Amino acid sequence: MSYDLAIIGGGTGGYTAAIRAAKNGLNVLLIEKEQLGGTCLHKGCIPTKAMLESSGFYHRMAQADEYGIELTEKPVFSLEKMMQRKDKIVNQLHQGIQYLMRKNKIALEKGTGKISGRAGESFTVEIQKADDILLVEAKAVILATGSVPVIPSSIACRDGLIVTSDHMMSMKTLPKKAAILGGGVIGAEFATILHELGVEVSIIEQQDRLLPQEDEEISKELTRLLKRKGIRLHLQSRLDLAGVKTSGIGVTLPIQNLASNQVVTEEADLLLLAVGRKNKVSGLGLEELGIDVSKGFVPVDAYQETAIKGVYAIGDIAGSFQLAHVASHQAIIAVDRIRGAEAEPYIPEYVPRCVYTNPQVASIGLNEKEAIERGLDIRIGKFPFKGIGKALIHGETDGFVKLISDASTDRLLGVHMIGPDVSELIGEQALGMLLEATAWEVSSAIHPHPTLIEILGEAALATEGQEING
Q: Which of 143, 386, 158, 353 lies closest to 252 in space, CA to CA?
């Protein structure tokens, strides 16, 4: 069997590439060893946001009296029903992807794929199936194998006691007390879910703030707000993994403060390992082709092509942001390049990033430190949500927007937000960055009132000290 394109991995990047290629006349094979949709659909983006929707709704019901609603009985939360709702959403989307494969006449093979050699100008792709091995030829190959949670070598998962984010997708009971190792995106989001459901939560993080990759002011504000909510933070601290002890009902955690060297012992019903994700680059036949994956990712150019012409890598394994929308964007770039169409290069500064904590965090472009390190002369405009009428109406006034522009050209360099529904606001700035918008253009755009998005106009005005309501 011969194909124009073989894609190894059927997650967001893989199925996007398959659809894009099929719609443009290519004969496509998509190889997936588990379920179409990958981590994003089954263990990441979609199920966690469904869980956050349930936990957030439950949490807001406790504030019903502030909105003039008197509940005669205390709301009762059902973990089983929350998980059923999550599964229903995932299943509906999974069925939709399967329909798109049929609609676009995309060939599917269930198994583990790798490039086993070259045959003239084509590649031989080996597919390890349940009971046999299938060999196919493809003129081009896209690798979209994604990533898996990191499990430190000095500790092992234990059902119901020591888990990763994958295990949380099949959670049967809520712990009374949970400890989370890692204060990045995954750790902070699960801390939000558990805390809003009434679980006592601790986060152990080696840095001095949560979300250390975000703009410092944003991450410090989230750190302050989650601490104020009652989440216990062990910052500048490490967990002695070798000293972790489990019993039938809980986990004992020795936590060392890196500044004072003092060790405290904490008990928890659950330890969630949220220390990052490891790219799945082994077993793909890349070393044999001469592609260096020693740094844990597949090196690519701005169009996602590896050092071997005709072999592309997209998504997590390509070494950029581990985000589903990055994978799908890179998929389109790679396919357009393969079919000889004009393609725009991938630009990391144009990627919006969202964290679904409460309050949410969203950002795009350079943060203040990065801009200064590049030697740029910058202007900064900040505006708080407490000055926005719609935020008061929502009853969510924590947070602010920080806009960074070039002092000489006024061009947007970065936008950083913490506050209500900022994941829905960052899209305007993604378009602005793509169109090389200036702060003046953002401030001159008419933002409807009353809306949360008004804050972007105010922050843009603030770069010149001209904000109206602050």
A: 158
Give the number of other CB atoms < 10 A from CB of residue 227.
14
2-148+278-348 against 359-462: fold identical: no
Helix (H) or strand (E) holding 234: strand 232-235
Dist. CA 314–CA 147, nearest whole Å: 12
Instruction: Give the single-character DSSP code of 64.
Output: G
Determine the Cα–Cα distance for residues 106 and 124; give it in Å rounded to an integer: 19
Active site residues: 449
Assign domain 359-462 to its CATH superfamily: FAD/NAD-linked reductase, C-terminal dimerisation domain (3.30.390.30)
CB 182 within 8 A of CB 207: no
pLDDT of 206 above 90: yes
DSSP category for residue 344: P
CA–CA separation, 316 vs 312, rounded Å? Answer: 13
Query: What pLDDT digit, counting tens, does each position of 418-433 carry?
Result: 999 999 999 999 999 9
Which uninterrupted H or E stretch holds 225?
Answer: helix 216-229
